[in-house]
Specification:
The protein is α+β, with helices and mostly antiparallel strands. It is built from five helices and five strands, in the order E-E-H-E-E-E-H-H-H-H. The chain has two domains: 76 residues, Ubiquitin-like (UB roll) (Roll), CATH 3.10.20.30; 70 residues, [2Fe-2S]-binding domain (DNA polymerase, domain 1), CATH 1.10.150.
């Protein structure tokens, strides 16, 4: 790796100040420097979505983002979704709906769902399918994750979880 640089950014609401190679990928910084292992390394090409996080409200594949590109930005990882120790409604809906299979794609899929529901609290099934289309899963036919996301959307709109 090259020269290190001080990079300041927020992760799950907390300011992080790290001396790292500015070309190091966000995924690697999250996992290696911050111990946040929810975003998963998989394809390394941005095609599978296992490493998805939210940067300033947009779901992105963290394996494709040099850390210098998040300078001053807000990064939300799966670890930051829980609300005061309670699971986020999307996480709960995935469990209730049986949408968690091997679990490898689940954090990325949940983050894609979170970005969708933040901008569209009442998505159609087609909008949900489009939002998670960049998340590859070899265990399911996507029916249960789609059902879980629609369930979470209804819970979030109604303020009731289960």
């Amino acid at each position: 790796m090259g020269t290190t640089k001080l990079i300041k950014f927020y992760v799950n609401g907390e300011l992080q100040e790290l001396y790292v190679d500015p070309a190091k990928k966000l995924l690697d910084v999250l996992r290696e420097n911050l111990g946040l292992t929810g975003a998963k390394p998989a394809c390394g090409t941005g095609h599978c979505g296992a490493c998805k996080v939210i940067v300033n409200g947009t779901a992105v594949n963290s394996c494709q983002i040099p850390i210098e590109k998040v300078e001053g930005k807000k990064v939300l990882t799966i670890e930051g979704l829980s609300l005061g120790g309670d699971l986020h409604p999307i996480q709960r809906a995935f469990i209730v709906s049986g949408a968690v299979q091997c679990g490898y794609c689940t954090p990325g899929m949940i983050m894609a769902a979170k970005a969708l529901l933040d901008r569209n609290p009442e998505p159609t099934e087609e909008e949900v399918r489009r939002a998670i289309s960049g998340n590859l899963c070899r265990c399911t036919g996507y029916k249960k994750p789609v059902r879980a996301i629609l369930l979470a959307a209804s819970w979030m709109r109604d303020g009731k979880y289960e």
